[in-house]
Amino acid sequence: MNRTYKNILIWLMMGISSLSCGRDYMYPDYTGEETKEEIEPPTDSIGKRSTIRDLVLIYGAGTTVGDKWTDQSFVPYVSYNNGQQEEWMFDGFLFLELNDGNGNAYTTGHAPNPALKTQWEALIKNYFEAGQSITALDERLEKAAQKISGAVPKRKVVIGIPEPMRGAVEWGEVNGKILDFSKDEHRIEGCKWFIDNVINKFAESKFKHLELEGFYWIAEEMDHTATIMSPIGSYLKDKKMTFVWIPWWKSPGYDNGKQYGFTEVYLQPNYFFDKEPLSRLQEACIEAKTHGIDLEIEFDESVLGGNGSKLNDYLDVFEENQIYETKKLAYYQSVNTLLKLYRSVDPADKALYKRLSEIVSKRQKAENPPYLKN
What secondary structure letter does DSSP report for 316? Predict the structure, then answer.
């Protein structure tokens, strides 16, 4: 999402690795026009569509103490106590990371150096580390299952694929060959290596309450990666994996994600962070309906202390446009803002947490919503 350069520099100096992304600071050299290179669309039908209703973004792979997601961290993401009973919350968890905290970026603009194979391997290791991230989520689901009657629905996991940046001319070795990411065929090969390793690691982990639903493309524009997308999308289709993209507001290709092989596209309204009129949210609803794509709800720590008016704007406008009944939703919440709302003693924070949680838990109980049929 869009912020000022000043804030970005401050956050990076503080070592915070879990910024969301957007045009103004993530791609400072982006011209606003798609690449002129030839894009080869997938040669066959689109891949697996996701059954996720509510997909929450989870930044941080445990690279620093502040990033660690423990079983307790996941409490408000897994279930919600409405005062009478415990109910299920998010059915989808998107794990992604933008840099490793040591100067290596997993996508353009988030650190000085492109992440190499060593950093990609560390990312996978951190996602599956005992007691944190995906493993901790499975543990929390097991505990929640003791409080909620009935069958425990499998929750879906989506993993962000690092962007293979062209500057990584000696990225690392795969099958005895050093990959050079200045070459598209090597970039594709690196992404396939990452996909295969995550799939294998997930299978080895034998999680009780989790399923690997698919992968997410971290880059929110196509200027750097358009020419490699279709082969990656086709590879994921063959693996029976969904392919998710959450572009910033009207990022080129947002209205035709199928040409890149994406099966799920969630549009960022970017209203929360930009000085946009309230009408931006109405326009976002129209765009989503017109192009058959889904939407993202956006908020960060600035909502704390009774400052949730812009988040309430999303919730109001989406309600007025029947988005809750007709669209899948992604939730950008900075690092762990929902957790902070849950733990807050401020009455306004409690009210905001309650409102958002009741929307999600209600959506989880809806029978055969139309957005799961297309």
Answer: H
